[in-house]
Specification:
There is one protein chain. It is built from no helices and 11 strands. The protein is mostly beta strands.
């Protein structure tokens, strides 16, 4: 089962991007969904998570106030709006579907992952 992350690209510092996560072959409308990122030479790290109805969200401290996670269950899609991007945000971004309905931070709570989309922020 694959999730598809899209929307990455090259942007200057201070710019914005909107990432999308879709699941063409399954629904994740009943699951929490998260975004993670992996920079070169670093481990995959939590970015944001949202519960199945969107009522609960969590963010990494480094992105609070700049990133917003949202979802549209009718479209079976989750989004990550990224504003005021910084060079440190450069990474491959992955979306993942959680085992349960809650928004969760721990990577081990996710069992389906997308292939990643590259975000590059130039200074």
């Amino acid at each position: 089962v694959q999730l598809q992350a899209s929307g990455g690209g090259l942007v200057q510092a201070g710019g914005s991007l909107r990432l999308s996560c879709a699941a063409p072959r399954r629904t994740f409308s009943n699951n929490g969904v998260g975004w993670f990122r992996q920079a070169p030479g670093k481990e995959r790290a939590f970015v944001a998570a949202i519960s199945w109805r969107g009522g609960t969200t969590y963010y990494a401290e480094s992105v609070k106030g700049r990133f917003t996670i949202s979802r549209d269950n009718a479209k079976n899609a989750v989004y990550l709006q990224m504003n005021n991007l910084k060079p440190d945000d450069t990474a491959v971004y992955y979306c993942a579907s959680a085992r349960g309905a809650a928004a969760v931070v721990n990577r081990s709570e996710y069992n389906y992952w997308g292939q990643g989309t590259l975000v590059t922020v130039s200074s």
